[in-house]
Design brief:
The complex is a heterodimer of chains A (234) and B (124). Chain A has 234 residues and is an alpha/beta fold. Chain A contains eight helices and seven strands, in the order βαβαβαβαβαβααβα. The longest helix of chain B has 49 residues, at 71-119.
Chain lengths: 234, 124
């Protein structure tokens, strides 16, 4: 089974070398999506010996991740695992996240910090992010009846059907919650597995206070957009 | 009456300035001549309406609102809202195309580099 690890990265030259070193020890294919970084992200990723897709203009996390899905479709991969380039996603949890996909129990698996039975109390989530997450979880539940505790987690595994769908249509700008709505509407099975995340090694989170303040509005507009529009991937 | 004349002069001058600015944006390549046609036509119509009493009166009678001075302005605003929506539609389409081209460029560049590495040629 061909597994591809997609690592979106924007100005992550400090975090990437160690993280990619850990990932390489798992012996899966890796592609780093360099989202128009202004630092040496592309150089350190190439030096680590992994495939690098360098976007000439910054597309944000959604556009970057979708580039990875397109790469996976062309490379005829069976499974894609999405992990952030800031090193917060510990590769030690990869097999846990992959398991429901490999056994055919789910089409999309979310590595979650907040699953009740194994809550990651060590991980410190900023207040704005936590509020944004509660909000998007609530909206997602209202829209679909789906209970997802960690809607903003970027540690996800997708089977071929799911990432092929996302290669054709994927939301931009904080796409995680919207992506779950899209999957649910197409009948894909989503599940969460408990994982623990590490603190950020270097760099700054893109989820600033200003973005957090607008996040609820963005989620509502994004959800309305998905519900209203004809399915672009059909 | 002089107040009305003053307002009309101001309107004509403003429309003319907006028209000149539109032409300037086309000249410096910040606006596409094709995309700006609807705006230029709108500005010309507004200009004609602001200098022609007869035309304004005719439009009011056509709409059956002779007594309302604001009626033509309301239609003008609605038309501008439509033009704005049209512009947003074009921007959305362009954004999607730009994203696709951006992604395709990254994928093709990666493919070329892989082929160069396999053939032993230096990667530029």
């Amino acid at each position: 089974m061909k597994i591809l690890i997609v690592v979106p990265a924007h100005n992550e030259e400090e975090s990437l070398p160690k993280f990619l070193g850990e990932l390489r020890s798992l012996h899966h294919d890796i592609v780093v999506i360099n989202d128009a970084s202004s630092d040496g992200t592309e150089a350190v990723a190439k030096a680590a010996g992994v495939s690098v897709l360098s976007l000439p203009a910054n597309l944000g996390i959604g556009g970057a991740v979708q580039t990875g899905f397109k790469f996976a479709v062309r490379g005829n991969y069976d499974v894609v695992v999405q992990m952030d380039g800031d090193g917060q996603h510990d590769p030690a949890w990869l097999n846990i996240v992959l398991a429901p996909i490999l056994t055919g129990q789910a089409d999309c698996v979310i590595g979650s910090r907040y699953v009740k039975k194994n809550f990651d109390s060590d991980y410190k989530t900023s207040f704005p992010r936590r509020m944004g997450m509660y909000f998007s979880s609530g909206i997602l539940f209202l829209a679909t009846g789906l209970r997802v505790a960690d809607t903003t987690s970027g540690f996800r595994a997708l089977n071929r059907e799911a990432f092929t769908y996302f290669a054709k249509a994927y939301p931009v700008d904080h796409p995680e919650a919207e992506a779950l709505l899209m999957l649910h509407r197409r009948g894909f099975r989503i599940c969460e597995v408990a994982i623990k995340m590490r603190g950020r090694v270097a760099g700054e989170s893109l989820f600033t206070f200003a973005k957090a303040a607008l996040y609820p509005l963005r989620v509502v507009i994004g959800f309305l957009g998905i519900i209203l529009k004809k399915d672009a991937a059909k | 009456m002089s107040e009305f004349l003053h307002l009309r002069t101001l309107t004509v001058v403003l429309i003319f300035l907006v028209f000149l600015y539109t032409l300037h944006l086309v000249r410096v390549n910040k606006l596409s001549a094709h995309l700006v046609m609807s705006w230029v036509v709108t500005e010309i119509i507004f200009f004609i309406l602001s200098i022609s009493d007869w035309l304004l009166t005719y439009i009011r009678s056509l709409l059956g609102v002779e007594s309302s001075i604001l009626a033509p302005s309301l239609f003008g605003l609605m038309w501008l809202a439509f033009l704005t929506l049209d512009s947003l539609t074009r921007i959305s389409l362009m954004s999607t195309k730009l994203k696709d081209v951006n992604q395709e460029l990254a994928l093709v560049k990666n493919q070329v580099e892989s082929m160069q590495q396999k053939s032993g040629r230096p990667v530029s």
